[in-house]
Amino acid sequence: MARLKITRASGETIVQISPVVEAAFESNFGSGIQKRFREEERTSDLYWLAHNALMRKEVIPPYGEDFLMTLINVDVLEDELPNG
């Protein structure tokens, strides 16, 4: 699974784009993550993913301006490859 490195004023957090986050994205946007990123290239989709993944780990403001004001950067990290 891909991961997100979310940088906020309070520090950095790395979260997985888990199956439940991926399914929530598809339900909300009516498209798979990769297809939507390729065709639409909207940074706001990345912010939505970050919010959805974070809200499963901690209490954060609802998605919108209050949440977005806490963000500094969101990066997609490559899948982790097993050692060996």
Question: In terms of topology, how is this protein built?
Answer:
Blueprint (H helix, E strand, L loop, with lengths): L2 E6 L2 E6 L2 H11 L3 H8 L2 H12 L10 H4 L2 E7 L7
Helix pairs in contact: 1-3
Main-sheet strand order equals: 2-1-3
Order of helices and strands: EEHHHHE
Computed Rg: 13 Å
User: Could you list the spans in which at least 5 consecutive residues all have pLDDT below 50?
Assistant: none
The quaternary structure here is single chain
Instruction: Report the structural category.
Output: alpha+beta
Question: What share of residues are in beta strands?
Answer: 15-25%
Name the average pLDDT.
Answer: 91
Largest sheet: 3 strands, antiparallel
How many strand segments?
3
Structure described in brief:
The chain is of the alpha+beta class. Helices cover 42% and strands 23% of the residues. The relative contact order is 0.25.
Describe the structure.
- This protein has one domain (3-77).
- 42% of the residues lie in helices and 23% in strands.
- It contains 4 helices and 3 strands; from the N terminus they run ββααααβ.
- The protein has helices at residues 19-29, 33-40, 43-54, 65-68; strands at residues 3-8, 11-16, 71-77.
- α1 (19-29) crosses α3.
Using brief descriptors, characterize the structure shown:
23% strand; 4 helices; 84 residues; alpha+beta; three-stranded antiparallel beta sheet; globular
